[in-house]
Amino acid sequence: MTSILTADAVGKAYGTGSNRLPIIKGLTLSVEPGEFVSLVGPSGCGKTTLLMCLAGLLAPSEGEVRFKGQRVTDPPIGLSVVFQDYSRSLLPWKTNLDNILFGMRRVTGMDKAAKRDRAMEILSAVGLTGFDGHYPWQVSGGMQQRVAIARGIAAQSELLLLDEPLAAVDAQTRADMQDLLLDLAARFNQTCLLVTHDVEEAVYMADRVLVLGPRPTHVVREIEVDLPKPRDQLATREHPAFLHARHEVLALIRSMRQRTVAA
Question: Could you tell me if residue 62 is inside a domain?
Fold first, then answer.
C-alpha cells in the first residue's frame, strides 16, 4: 500500500545564525490510506508547526513532505485542515451552509445544485439540520466546530489534518465530537491525522499514536492501538489495550519532560 502522506527527514527552524531556533529536526513519518493517526508530545514541542509543514502552509527548512507521492510545496488539492481556533477559520459574513460551500470551491465534477445537496447531507451528518441559514456567530462554540469539521469533510479531501480541533469545547461536547469525528471518518472513508495534547483522546481515536520528543521534535515512538471498532466512550476506555497504550504514552512523555527539566 502506498502511503498517502510521508515526511522524510523534515526539519524546520526560524531565524539565522546565532538566532536560529530549530523546531523540528530529522522527523520521518507516514500515514496510510484509511488510517486515523494521532500525534502527541510534550507541550511546546512543535506539533502545530509540524502540521503546518505537512499541510503545505509552511515550507520545511530541510527534508520533504509528499502527499500521494507528490512533493508538497503549497496546500495540495485533496488535503484539508481543521484548525483549533474554529471561530477565526469560519467566515462570519457567510451562513453555515455557505461556509461549507466555500470549502468545496475546489471540488470538481459537481454543479452548484449537487454541491448544495452534498453540503446539506453533511450538515445533517454533524447534527446541524435546520441551522444551514444561521451564521457562525448565531450558534454555540460546539456547533461552530461541527461546521468547521463539516467543511473539511465536504471538501472531499482524501486526508484531513486536525489541529487540536476539540481543545476549546467542554468535556461532554468533546466526547461527543470525538465520536462524531470517528463516525464521519468511517462513513466518508476519510484518512485523518490528529494533533492533540490530550493523551487519552489520542489513544481513544487512533489506529496509531506517534509520540513526539521535545524541541527540536522528532518521532520518538510509534504505538499501535489494538482496540475494537466502533469505539465507545465507556467500554473502550476500560479496555486493557486502551489502558496499556495510555500508560505507555504517558510514561514516555513524563520521562522526556523529566529529562528536559534535569538538563
Answer: yes
